[in-house]
Design a protein that fits this description.
Structural class: alpha+beta
Helix content: 25-40%
Mean pLDDT: 80
Distance between the termini: 81 Å
Largest sheet: 9 strands, antiparallel
Strand content: 25-35%
Number of helices: 7
Length: 333
Amino acid sequence: MKIISMGTFATFSLIFVIIVFPLFFHTNLRVKEQELSEEIIMRYDQGLHAAVQDAAFSLKLNEAQDHEAKYDSIKNFRANKEYAVDSFYRTLFINFGVSDNPMAQNVLKTYVPALAVIDYDGFWIYTDEKYKNSKGETEFRQLWKAKKPYSYSDDAGNSLSFTLDDYVVAFDAATQTWREGKREEVAAMVGGRISLLNNPSTFEEVRRSTIVRSIQDDLGYYINYHNEFAKRFGSTYTFTLPTISQEEWNNTIDDIGIMAFIQGLPLGINYYNNYALGGGRLVKKPSIYGAIRNGIKIYYRSNCNFPDEVVEKFTSEKAAAAKGYFPRACSSP
C-alpha cells in the first residue's frame, strides 16, 4: 500500500480548498441574493396592491350627490379618476420608500407605463404623452387620454355602446336613429332589427368580449409606446402588456375599477414586473397602516385616524403582522 506523505496531503487539501471554496462561496452568495430578491418582491407586491386598493377606493369619492350611483344601477356612477391616480402614487411612494424624495418619485414613475380606469360606459388610460416645451424641446409627461366607449358594430351597419351592465346605447342603421335603455327595452324599440339585442346570453358574451378587447388594445398600444419614453432615460427593457387571465378580466369588468402596471424595475440582475387590479365598489375594507410608536412597530386600520406617521401600508392585517407589526384597535391609546 502506497503511503501519502503529510506534505502531499496538505498540497491536495490546499488545491481542494482553492477549487471548491470559491464555488461554495458563489453558491452561498446566490442563495442569499435570491432570498433578498424574494423579500423585496414580496414588499413590492404588497406596496403595489395597497396602492391600487387605495386608488380603487378613491374612484367612488365624489363631492356632488348627482355623481354618485344612480338608483337604476349600482354600477352607474362617475369614476373619480383624478382622486384615484393621486391616491395610487401617494401610497406607492410610501410603500416604495420614496415619499420624501421627488427625484426618486419621478424615476419610479418611469417604470409605470400605464394606468387604466374602467368606468361605467368607457375607460381612460393614464400614460405618457410627447410634447414640446417652451424651448421647442421634446419632453414627456403623464396625462389622461380621451375616454373611449365600449363600442361594437355589426355587419348591418348597426352600432352599440355597451356599459358594465345591460344598459346600452344603439344606432339603428335602418331608421338612422339612436335608442338607449336596458337591452330588452331597446330590442323592443328597434323591432328586432339589431339581432344581438334579441338573445340575452349572446348579448352578454359580446358585451364582455368587446369591453376586454377595447381595454386590451389600448393598453397594449400605450405600454408599447412607453418604450420610446423609457429609452430617453437609458432603459433597455422592452415594455409589453402582460398576459392576464380571462378570470381576472371578468372580475375587472364587473364594476368600475383601476389597473396598474409596473415593469422593468431593476432588481439585482433581474427586473420586477407586476400588475394589480382593483374594483371601485368592491373595495370596502380599510387599508392597514404600519407605524412606529414609542419605538414599537404597530399596525391599525386607516379609519382609526391615529396621528402616527405612516411608514408602510398593507392589504391585510396578516401581511402587517408578518412584517413584525403589532395590532392596535381604534380605541387603543
